[in-house]
Amino acid sequence: MGMTMSEKILAKASGQANVKAGDIVWVKVDIAMMHDLLGPWLVDGGFQRLGGKLFDKEKVVVVSDHCTPPATVQQADILKFTRDWSRDQELPYYYEFEGPCHQVIVEHGHVRPGRLILGTDSHTCMAGGLGAFATGIGSTEMIGVLLTGETWLKVPETIKVVWDGRLPHGVYAKDMVLKTIKDLGHAGATYQTIEFSGSAISELSMDERLVLSNMAVEAGAKTGLIEPDHKVAEYLRSKGVTEEIDMISSDEDAAYSRVLYYNASELEPQVACPHEVDNVHPVSSVEGKAVDQVYLGSCTNGRISDLRIAAQILKGKKISKNIRCLVVPASQHIWMQANKEGILDILTEAGCIVNMPSCGACGGFTSGVIGAGEVVMSSSNRNFRGRMGSPKGEVYLGSPAAVAATAIEGKITDPRKYLPKEVMV
Ligand SMILES: CC(C)[C@H](C(=O)O)[C@@H](O)C(=O)O
Ligand code: SF4
Fold first, then answer.
1. For 61-94, how does the pLDDT look when each residue is reduced to its tens digit (9 = 90+)?
2. Distance between CA 296 and CA 380 in Å, rounded?
3. In terms of domains, do 252 and 351 share one?
């Protein structure tokens, strides 16, 4: 019997030739990632009591992103603690104010195919888009990882999600993943890997693939894997990675717990409605719902291709007078690229506010929280009660194109209306 990508990565990490779903394995961790909110200030007590010595500082990456820029004194204190701790531990990889950790660790080349990456954040699974087994762990568990570089994991079963065919104009990876989560349910992949494959997945850019893996956890999955290919290899080379790339793939005869098949050409734009990420409907059934805020950003959909699509839609137009539109590039690097391409000018001329790269508005942590009764159309990944501020607010999730079209009308809008065929991507 062959092995899935998950089984292969966990076999390697546990120093065995073969493992199978259900096995409990001791694994060596390639990258331990923490962010400010669930990082040093939470782990340090236990870490110091148990010796306070990192297993390998080259393999520990810390990113301050949730409390940036700090909106309260407590957040500023957490940020200071994180910065001081990273300096005291002489960490070579501490990033601050650069954007959400998942994007930052991809851009800095920490994410590579075949690696085992554990992070104190549920969307650590995004790194699976490059073929790494990446998953979130709690801060207490992270203490053990920091001290020993090891932990145990149960090898997950894998659900294969096959998307063949060609995506229609105006339909994106976000729509694919929302549809997949609708069908799986928000807990339908609990403790399993989702492996995305098929011709529509191979066609996707790296930016778009990361959307799928990012949201795997929204169906409860441990990680969301995509087989690495030449696009991943080229991306890593462009980031200065010179070592051999592990082009890992699942064996033909690997065992899957479930296989779902989709034809991408039949997909329409999708929207996740309050207050569950699997409450997904075609945009046509929620069109016209008035919103107060539009949010284009996050580690899910704040990348350069997302900002380009929004700029195509908003160029020469104005956002509705009834709303505010927050644009948050997913990293400083993306911010600079968008600036070079004139995208930030287009968006600000349309009336959007461009905020610094951060988790702030996405999770209702710093700037951009919503009040009771307010409705948001967001390009992010979660819409549970209170996600972006008041529990009496409502969050709808859609693609960046749907978000940009909604900004123009002030109500949820089918993006295809604003994407004439010749400029659609
Ligand atoms: C703050 C943190 C617990 C959280 C996560 O783990 O995902 C956040 O990043 C989110 O997106 O909700
Ligand atoms: S989902 Fe939002 S809050 Fe969580 S890491 Fe991504 S940008 Fe930050």
1. 999 999 999 999 999 999 999 999 999 999 999 9
2. 8
3. no
Instruction: Check whether residue 62 and residue 148 sit in a common domain.
Output: yes
Both tokens assigned to 354? 């461009």
Task: Count up the domains in the chain and report the number.
Answer: 2
The pLDDT score that the predictor gives to residue 198 is 98
In terms of domains, do 176 and 290 share one?
A: no
Q: Is the CB of 389 under 6 A from ligand 2?
A: no
Rounded distance between C-alpha atoms, residue 399 and residue 266, angstroms? 17
**Average pLDDT over the chain, rounded to an integer:** 97
Angle, helices 139-148 vs 40-49, to 10°: value is 50
Residue pLDDT, tens place only, 179-199: 999 999 999 999 999 999 999
Which one of 62, 64, 68, 102 would you pick to mutate in the ligand 2 pocket, going by the greatest count of ligand atoms within 8 A of its CB?
102
Between helix 400-409 and helix 304-314 the angle, nearest 10°, is 30
Residues 276 and 186 in one domain: no
Q: Which residues span the domain enclosing 42?
A: 5-263
pLDDT > 70 in the chain, percent? 99
Does residue 278 sit in the same domain as residue 219?
Answer: no
Residue 101, marked binder: no
Read off the CATH number of the domain in which 49 is found: 3.30.499.10
With 0-12 / 13-18 / 19 or more C-beta atoms within 10 angstroms meaning exposed / middle / buried, residue 292 is: middle
Domain termination residue (choose one: 223, 246, 263) = 263
Distance (angstroms) between ligand 1 centre and the Cα of 228 equals 26
- Tell me the whole-structure pTM to 2 decimals: 0.97
ipTM of the complex: 0.98
35 CA distance to ligand 1 middle (Å): 10
Find the mean pLDDT for residues 248-277.
Answer: 98
For residue 318, report the distance from its CA to the centre of ligand 1, in Å.
Answer: 32
Are 120 and 35 a contacting pair, CB within 8 Å? yes
